[in-house]
UniProtKB/TrEMBL annotation, chain A:
Transcription among keywords: no
InterPro entries referenced in this protein's UniProt entry, alphabetically: BPD_transp_1_N, MetI-like, MetI-like_sf, Opp2B
Pfam families the record matches: BPD_transp_1 (PF00528), BPD_transp_1_N (PF19300)
Signal peptide extent: none
Family that this chain belongs to: Belongs to the binding-protein-dependent transport system permease family. OppBC subfamily.
Gene Ontology MF annotations: nickel cation transmembrane transporter activity
Entry superkingdom: Bacteria
Protein name (database record): Nickel import system permease protein NikB
Chain segments annotated as transmembrane: 12-30, 103-124, 136-163, 183-201, 238-263, 283-309
From TrEMBL, chain C:
Record-annotated ABC transmembrane type-1 domain positions: 103-292
One Pfam family recorded for the sequence: OppC_N
Protein's recorded name: ABC transporter permease
SUPFAM superfamilies the record matches: MetI-like
Family listed: Belongs to the binding-protein-dependent transport system permease family.
Record keyword Cell membrane present: yes
One BP term from GO: transmembrane transport
Main location: membrane
Taxonomic lineage from the root: Bacteria, Bacillati, Bacillota, Bacilli, Bacillales
Transmembrane segments: 42-64, 107-130, 142-162, 224-250, 270-292
Organism: Peribacillus glennii
Its membrane topology: Multi-pass membrane protein
Locations listed in the record: Cell membrane
Keywords assigned: Cell membrane, Membrane, Transmembrane, Transmembrane helix, Transport
UniProtKB/TrEMBL annotation, chain D:
Residue span, ABC transporter domain: 7-257, 360-610
PROSITE patterns assigned to the protein according to its UniProt record, in alphabetical order: ABC_TRANSPORTER_1, ABC_TRANSPORTER_2
Coiled-coil boundaries: none
Entry superkingdom: Bacteria
Protein name: ABC transporter ATP-binding protein
Amino acid sequence: MVNYVIKRSVYGLIVLLIMISFVFIVMRLVPGDVVALQLSGAGAVSEEQIAQLRSELGLDKSVWAQFLDWTKNAVTGDLGKSLWSKMPVTTLIAERITVTLQLAFMAITMAILIAIPAGIYSAMKRNTWIDHMIRVIAIGGLSIPNFWFALLLIIFLSLFFGWIPPLGYQSFFSNPIVNLQQMILPALVLALSLSASIVRMTRSSLLEVLHADFIRTIRAKGAKEKLVIMKHALRNSLIPVITLIGLQVGFLLGGTVIIESIFSLPGIGSLIFEGVTKRDYPVVQATVLVYGALFMIVNLIVDIAYGWIDPRMRPD
Amino acid sequence: MKQSNWLLIIVALTFLLSACSNKSETTSGTNQGKNGSGDGKPKSGGVVQILNPADPDMLDPHKTSSIYAHNILGLVYSKLVTYETGPDVEFSDYNIVPDLAKDWKVSEDGKVYTFHLRENAKWHNVAPVNGRNVNSGDVVATFERIQSIPGHQAYMLDQIDKIETPDDLTVEFHLKQPFAPFLSYMANHFMWILPKEAAEGKINLETAAIGTGPFVLDKWERNVETKFSKNPDYFLEGLPYLDGVNFKTVPDEDTRLAAFRTKQADTTGLLSPQQFANLMKQDPNLQYRETLFPTQTQVYMNMTRKPFDNLKVRQAIAMAIDRKNAVKQIFGNGEVSGPVNPSLGKWALPKEERESLQPYDIEQAKKLLKEAGYPDGFETKVMVTDGYGEATVRMAQWVVEDLRKIGIKAKLEVVEYATYFSQKWPKLDYDIGVGFQSYLQEPDEWLYGQLHSKGAKNWYGIKNPELDKMLEEQRTVMDEDKRLAKILDIQRYALKEVVNPIPLVTHITASPTQPYLKNWNTHASYGMIHMKEVWLDKK
Amino acid sequence: MNPAPQINPGLPNTSIKQLSTKRIRLRKSLDETKRFIKTQKIGVISLSIIMLFILLAAFAPLIAPYDPIEQDRSAFMLAPTAAHIMGTDDLGRDIFSRIIFGARVSLLVGIATVAISMICGTILGVISGYFGKVIDMAIQRVMDAIMAIPPLILALFIAALLGPAIKNVIIALTIVNIPHFARITRGEMLRIKEMNYVEASRSAGSGALRIIAKHGIPNMMAPIIVIASLTFGQSIIAEASLSFLGIGTPPPNPSWGLMLSGASSYMENAPWMVLFPGLVLSIAVLAFNLLGDALRDFLDPKLN
Amino acid sequence: MEKSTILSVDGLKTVFQTRHGYVDAINDITFTISQGETVAIVGESGSGKSVTALSIMKLLESSGQIASGQVLFNDMNLAELSDRKIRDIRGKQIAMIFQDPMSCLDPLYTIGDQIMEILKIHEDLTPAEADNRVLELLKLVGIPDGETRRNSYPHELSGGQRQRVMIAIALACRPNLLIADEPTTALDVTVQAQILGLLKQLQADFGTSIILVTHDLGVVAEMADRVIVVYSGTVVEQSGVHELFSKPEHPYTEALIRSIPRADTDRTAPLHIIRGSVPGLHEMPSGCRFHPRCDYATEICTQQEPPLFHLESDRSSRCWMKDGSLAKEFQHRLNTDNLDSRHPAPPNDAYTASKKEILLEVHNMQKHFPILKGILSRKVGAVKAVDGVSFEIFKGETLGLVGESGCGKSTTGRLILRLLDITDGEVKYGGINLAEFKGRQLKEQRKKMQIVFQDPYSSLNPRMTIGDIISEPLEIHRIASGSEKIRRAGELLEMVGLSSKDVYKFPHQFSGGQRQRIGIARALATEPELLVCDEAVSALDVSVQAQILNLLKKLQGELALSYLFISHDLNVVKYIADRICVMYLGKIVETADSETLFTNPTHPYTRALLSSVPVPDPTIKKERIILEGDVPNPAKPPSGCAFHTRCEHAKEICKSKIPEFKQMSLGHKVACHLIN
């Protein structure tokens, strides 16, 4: 098991390295210069001053040298400082990551809690009107852009109920009630499209498992349908569902960028966008790194969950 | 979360100086609104809730030019001099009044400025300054720091020869030559006076702000909330009224509006005319203040490229644009602007003159084009960035449509902000551009900066020796009226002979506040310098 | 079957033969089409909707009553009337015309994204699956690296760096979608590689190129088509999301996403500015999703 | 012998809903089973035998339902029972075991859990009692060490053990009736012998009645008391097992029995065949369903469906011939057709006539698949799929390669064709080491050797027309293109007994047997000298299998082909092969010509293997050598003689020393220490 995790981590590091080199190089290739941006309003800035700022920001070296420096520091846990706020990037991310994590966690949990029962129900009531309804809602959920849904939600809530979630993010530990008031709607919006795909996957996967030979064995034992589905069919149909969740986490994390902004949540989503437009290289690099690492951790969890569900997939 | 909201941290235009005031009826055209009356005795207490579209990167006033940073800093710091605010003062009145300096004196030759500091000015009671008195050493340390850091503010001080401190409460600035804008520059938001401990590095200016202003910074929770509490030792007796001010970061415009509607905020920023109308419909008791925007939309042309080197072409373009309808449709309300933005009050040309010098005349425009040798127009590109928000992009689309009417086939090119600002505009890599200028506060910045052949922001290729001479001359005229006459002349000259950049419109923004928010006398400069007088009329 | 061999009475001549090979394929696809129409009612409906959008896009200049960019300075934000059946927007442009022309942008983004990422992804996936070993390792790690960045974040990163332009949106979404195709096609190639008909072909002496082209790709078209159809819908949403962030389709191009994202502040005053683009966008995405579902059912050998 | 009837099925009809409407899967199935009796339901694929089994228990998929008829069990009509009531019967009174024990056990739960589950459903036991019962059951079905084994997951067990677990589950509640649906089809013969033995033993101990569903007449002969022969969803004959084999009363039964190659089948004569193939549910012929394939069919057979005629001694047959009034008509047909003469023997003397010229020589061939592990994919071992194999193939002969699954026989075939690369050793073709062939040369060489696969479905590219499939080798080698190519493809199709018009069809339009013919046609396209037939008839119904075997023989005669015939079915190999190699765990343990091997098997493994094969003749009761345990893991083969772990004669030397290949007589070699 430990070996397995180590092996996965090594792969993960390789992937992260490829990812970060891509980000590192692309950002420096495209037009747009952070020094020019920072001095944009000033106008009368001498060449020396530009050079001074450039060297202060560590941008006077070659891209290759910068990359080596950055990688070396990154290994020691130092992801550099923001070129704009001068704050250590790790601090910036630490301040915000809990928000994104909580949001993602809540969204995934809600999606699972809504979607898996709905998927089971839909499969059991196959081809009835309730099955059709669940399927229509599910596919509808995939067809509405979530920023759109979020905006309509905010506008309607404020217009018709005179209420929107309280502003000024509070962490769960400092004020759980306010925190939940703030998080539940955005999590719901994010959960929408995720649960749509989970419902569909649960349904089709369950239906497929219900055709498997061993289900016949269990029925031949005289088992009730509830036992057949809840104990055997469901667990057997979970693998593709979990795979899907692992993949969809990427979409979900991407969605946080917009949703965090609409609901004024200080997550890492906006950090990267701001970083890209302001050419704040260390911030973007670190944020991408964090997203990559998150994705990998999620998929490691997914892999471990595979083993937990299916003894055949347990690493020796 | 339109992209603008993040980008504006740099040039910060969308954020409408959350302006609204209970101004008295003496307003002129620039400053109208339905005001909750400012009568009644100010009450102390209460906390004002303000929404910011974005949070500053850092708080060092000399390393950031973000309006969000300076608005926060304005509550904490003081300048030597500042602009007047109050019920009788207009948003765009640039009356210089004492701040940290109780008075000042200009020498006969205009080369020495002497400031006398207040005896009762104390630093906030926070380590390491712990409420000690302000002295001239702090001022010198501050200015030396400004001069040592590359940035927007350095050029304002490039006329200073030396700074002297005859005693603890006196500071003398010796200039290389007479320099009329100097006092305005001293009132500029970059000139916040810091304790010398800060210059010595004992305070981390990137995250902390310890000053002499009406409020003390309690907590800066990045991207969430910034909290201020009343400074009990503020040098102006009885001020401030408020117990505190809270800024919250809310990036999305619709969410900000929703928050205001649901009373989670006491004021809200930029609104479209429709949004404003809806708000008023919903709650007729709302106050609002209409103010001229501190900068204007301009169309600028690259004079190093043909055919824009041709004055007649530029004149034709200027005449082709339907400014009045544009400002009405895109911004709801506003004025035709001039080379100096009308928000600078008397320094701008009078409204009638701006309009008469810049007529909307398609026939004449076509004729001019024909004379210039382009009877069938020409093809060109109009550059715009979405970094300023959607309104600018809409304005650019408007301009493109107008140009089409006189035969100029212009293709709109939306440019990414970083590229726009570091590659395109300053490097003159464009044909025509539509954009904003920064919130410039001094006519010299508007004119010398943009029009002088060596101007810091002359990114248009303007080279006009006669104009250069006029621009240099006005800087040395110490008499305000005489300088004003010259400034107005320069503007008339520019509108007739240069026609680049073409001023389009300055819009009027209506920003609502909750009825109980009193003395909300905003000013066009950065720093929310009116906050010290604001009070809340509620229990 | 009678196992006794008979002497071949001779076969018809060349040209007829060649023709009938084509005809037989044509007939097969006709049969398939008939079967699709018979068994996939929802698929047919969504396909018709998509066809409608394609027609709208193709004949936009003929159908649209107005120029989608031209501003009518006397018709700002008009509610729907006979002259403007979906009303006009804040610059006096006819929304109906913009929606019709917007189909061009949305479909262009969808088609280009799907086509390019499908081609690149399939090539990478097939190479990866067929050759395995180091090549597979290298391609897979790069794909993993792309997939590890959340799709919208990656699209945002690329589009924001490159600036707002339809071309850049397509580049960004293409890069995002390549790994999806690469994954599927790699898996399919691994599966097909083990098929006996591939072994038969190899034992007959065919090389990699032939196996991939003749046996590999034709047999993985079903999952590719399904993924393509779903990707199409997702691309339309992604384009709208990027436009919402201000890094999507630049004005004045009429794009559904742009119309949708720019109009939210007019929700109360001019709901038609928000409603129609949103509706059209969702219907289009829904149609592609439903088509993907129908194709999945149709092409799934288990259900045949 | 008369015992009480416990189940009686009467006129059972089950229909399935398909896209084309309802189709009959079974129709008018009638039979009874008595206490302690074993009734076999036998038929080819698609005959409805499994549907019959599932209908009794009402375990059909949701698209299937019983349309009419009754299933009487203890005076209850199961066909009309509510779901709740029939659940009480399932597992408790009637139990079922299925074909593939891998897919029939839930892979996610331990076997102990799955045995326990049925006890929990039907019996009210304390946990301790239930635990004991689980251990008892495991012991009963021959799984030793139950205490630890109960915690195993299905995938950790061998096929045989899994089937034992299935039996344990089935017998957990001591049911009166056990329905076994192809219980040994997925197993190797040696394991099949174990399982059949176990079933017999348990039946003797508990007196359980068994309905045995199978396609294997050998298994029928071995196990059944009575036999129900089903064809196309209906019973065609019902009879005691001895009577059935000695005097089949239905032409189908007769043809079926005659078409199976047996140990005593004449190798030089072609097999009797049943022409055509089992009709699909949608293309059911009118009249007697068998008439299109029947040699005796007359007018009435094509028009009217015959009833089940009851004959003497409890037998019945669904054939018009049994209708006394029609006897004359059939007499005519019986007289005019001499069955054997209708299919003249193909000239099959290519091998004997040849001068024993070596075509292919394999010397000490090895194939090790590395086992990779850890972060850096270190090689930690190897699966020795083929571990030093030597043999030769003469021109024009058929070399049979037999062995149980996983013994490396298929790998051997692929190594010869260079579809896999050899780890060590050499393969010489026409005297040249194949490894020396590169590029163009290899491509040329490939023309000479082709392969025919087992699975007729995956061996044809479903997206290509038959013409394209067959002519692909021609295109690759630029032998023909355009119309010439298509013409050649047509010729090849005719050669394998299909129509040249089929070039424009797609694979899905053909039956399994036809596809196999297409596969053969493709293999013949480059006019090869050697065909590797990898289980080429294993997936086919017996009636079709005979057609293909005959075809292969005929082609060999016509084209002077050499075959490497890989199969697990000893009788088939015996029939087609001139010489046979027996493989066990990657090694050849015995080689001999086929007569010698069957009459004088020498290696203990060969002997066990031969004795395990059920003979389709209930009169023969042969002494059976039942091998214990399973084939060891090829990644960790036993030391010395790989067979020693299962060999009842094993001595010390067998554990330590690898036996040499010793010549017994001309062409008969054995690798065993016990032979001197």
